[in-house]
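#struct-help
A.M.: can someone run this one for me? Single chain, 124 residues.
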Amino acid sequence: MLLFVYGTLRRGKKEHSLLANSPFVASGYVEGTLYDLGVGFPALGLDEVQGRVYGEVYEVSEDLLQTLDHYEGCSPENEEESLYIRQEITFYPEKGKPFPVVAYVMPVSQRQRFLATVIPSGRW
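D.P.: on it. Structure tokens below:
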């Protein structure tokens, strides 16, 4: 599975080691809004698209995806209670044609629990 990461899982960030054995695919962006939650990690929002959110794509195994679901507070069986949900979106690489990826997206209902502010640059 191709996974878009935009926050603490990116290269050089504090939790990138979780992706240490996953092949890097590309850098680029998705259309959306990046929020600073004020708690040390960001959120991707797709409800009010305000620009580009920059990040990286990795090829991840199903086993790793389950680990990342736990890390991200994502429960595909119970999305209403999840901090993030996995959603398929279009990724625009720096070079080449757009392609589908999966990303952890924070629903509005969860973002409202934080003092979320827009990060205009789209970079965490």
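A.M.: thanks! The CA atoms of residues 54 and 123 lie 6 Å apart.
D.P.: also worth noting: The helical segments are 62-72, 108-111.
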